[in-house]
Amino acid sequence: MDAPAKTHAKTARKRPVRPTARRMAAEDVRPFIEALAAANPAPRTELHYATPFQLLVAVVLSAQTTDAAVNKVTPALFAKAPDAAAMAALGEGGIGPLIRTIGLWQAKAKNVAALARLLVERHGGAVPADRAALEALPGVGRKTANVVLNVAFGEATMAVDTHIFRLGNRTGLAPGKTTRAVEEELVRRVPPEYLRDAHHWLILHGRYVCKARTPECWRCVVARWCRYARKTPAPAPKPEREALARGTRAKAVR
To answer: What is the pTM of this model?
Structure first.
């Protein structure tokens, strides 16, 4: 479910997201991406799956949920329903108890059962390598379709999640007020030969280094090109480590 949940009519409207850094210079985009590539030459999704169908289901389940949480429920789910026909037969009632530890599990159980039925009815149980057909499935929006097209079918798509949206704006790589704007800017700016893997490089960097609250700039491989002004300094060493370091230096002098 890529679309955010609807809020009450009286809820105040959120202000549009503003870019947090100046736009990155065009000549800095390639070395920025190449540095990420050098640090992770063979990036992969962290979701566990064996087939395009299982990937599709895992991505649908991962909406507003961590990949780690999804990976805990999918082994049992896929053991009972490894393909679309089996998942459709399992139904919402059978899917729900197997995924109830993840967020929004009831709505996700309903969508997974429905998309499995549609895959059987419209596509013979196969996952279509077509954006329009994917987005016509329950629980599948542009982001999910982009992930499936990229990972399962090798297309150079850019799925923008919360991590990539933040990173695109914070670094200046692809400033934009909406996920679609960031996606289009990334597709335009990332060198074509790197575009397919760029989704993984960016999401993993945003997840583990360029974190939301406190980006770990001191260990960032792309910090020199990043336009974020308020870079986080390296944390001060813990007292015991500092004392140990002093003791080691003292011994070396003797």
So the answer is: 0.82
- The enclosing domain of 71 has a CATH number of 1.10.340.30
Burial-class residue 83 by CB neighbours within 10 Å (0-12, 13-18, 19+): middle
Catalytic amino acids?
143, 161
CA-CA-CA-CA dihedral for 146, 147, 151, 152, to nearest 10: -70
Residue 29 maps to a domain: no
CB 152, CB 55: distance < 8 Å: yes
Per-residue pLDDT of the chain (254 residues; tens, 9 = 90+): 444 443 333 334 444 445 556 899 999 999 999 999 999 999 999 999 999 999 999 999 999 899 999 999 999 999 999 999 999 999 999 999 999 999 999 999 999 999 999 999 999 999 999 999 999 999 999 999 999 999 999 999 999 999 999 999 999 999 999 999 999 999 999 999 999 999 999 999 999 999 999 999 999 999 999 999 989 999 888 765 566 566 656 555 55
Long-range pairs for 132-139: beta carbons < 8 A, 24 or more residues apart: 134/56, 137/56, 138/110, 138/111, 138/114, 139/1, 139/60, 139/63, 139/107, 139/108, 139/111, 139/112, 139/114, 139/115
- Asked, for residue 220, whether it belongs to a domain, the answer is no
Determine, yes or no, domain membership for 101: yes
- Look at the chain and report how many structural domains it folds into: 1
In a domain, 88, yes or no: yes
Rounded Cα–Cα distance for residues 95 and 103 (Å): 14
How many CB atoms neighbour CB 48 within 10 A?
15
Show the domain range for 87: 52-151
